[in-house]
Design goal:
Length: about 250
């Protein structure tokens, strides 16, 4: 029973991240800006680190505002660079990621718990998600998903970047940067050959991966985040092969 009490909030957290990131991942893959998730998530993380450096409470409103402001600023700058230098946008995204990551390391250099904070930002602490926190995340997720499915491509480029920044800000503080990236890209890659049912299969890949990864973490006592990433990669590959086989038949 104790394991279930830990598992169900973690699983819901994963499903909430998947709810926004599976459809956004399809759009990111279509746009050819695969690493934007890493960049915006790292910029949001820089906002968290900066708020912590200023002395604000880790789960306080100031940290959330700082993370969202940083992510929105980063997303808008990347929107501007996409219009200015569309031929090298992926390289610009890479530079933004490296710059934000190293700025965060500089801010954490004098913090005795800096290494632990950096690990939490990258790997996340999905098993420590509390039910109370999930309620606010669920509301934010519902608003983001509703906006995406109601407006879709009508959001335009700026609207897409703003919505994307909001989704990433919520997700990276919940499950960590690596899981955010995997949830965005792996289901989209696994279903890229499908003309119909792509989003539904993407959701299935993500949900199965979170459930299996969390169960494996409980059984082996290994870190949940890395296990879910590895599980999602395997599940995504199997889903891709199954879809290709079905198309061939």
């Amino acid at each position: 029973m104790r394991d279930l009490a830990v598992l169900w909030p973690a699983l819901i957290a994963g499903l909430l991240v998947a709810a926004t990131h599976v459809p956004l991942g399809v759009q990111v893959l279509n746009r050819g800006i695969v690493f934007i998730d890493l960049a915006v998530a790292q910029i949001a993380g820089l906002g968290v680190v900066f708020a912590d450096w200023l002395g604000f409470e880790p789960q306080g409103a100031a940290v959330q505002v700082s993370a969202l402001a940083a992510a929105l600023a980063g997303a808008l700058v990347l929107n501007w660079t996409e219009k200015l230098w569309p031929d090298v946008q992926e390289a610009v995204i890479g530079v933004a990621f490296v710059l934000a990551a190293n700025a965060a390391m500089l801010l954490l250099a004098a913090n005795p718990h800096g290494a632990e904070h950096l690990k939490d930002l990258l790997v996340g602490q999905i098993l420590w998600v509390t039910p109370g926190r999930l309620a606010l995340v669920a509301v934010a997720t519902a608003l983001i998903v509703a906006a995406w499915f109601a407006l879709g491509t009508r959001l335009g480029r700026i609207g897409f970047y703003v919505l994307f920044a909001c989704a990433v800000t919520v997700a990276v503080q919940l499950v960590g940067l690596y899981l955010v990236f995997a949830t965005l890209i792996v289901p989209a890659l696994a279903t890229r050959r499908l003309a119909r049912g792509r989003i539904a299969l993407g959701y299935a890949v993500a949900a199965l991966s979170y459930a299996a990864g969390l169960a494996a973490s409980m059984a082996t006592d290994l870190p949940a985040g890395p296990l879910i990433v590895c599980t999602m990669t395997v599940v995504g590959l199997l889903a891709y092969l199954a879809a290709r086989s079905a198309r061939g038949a």
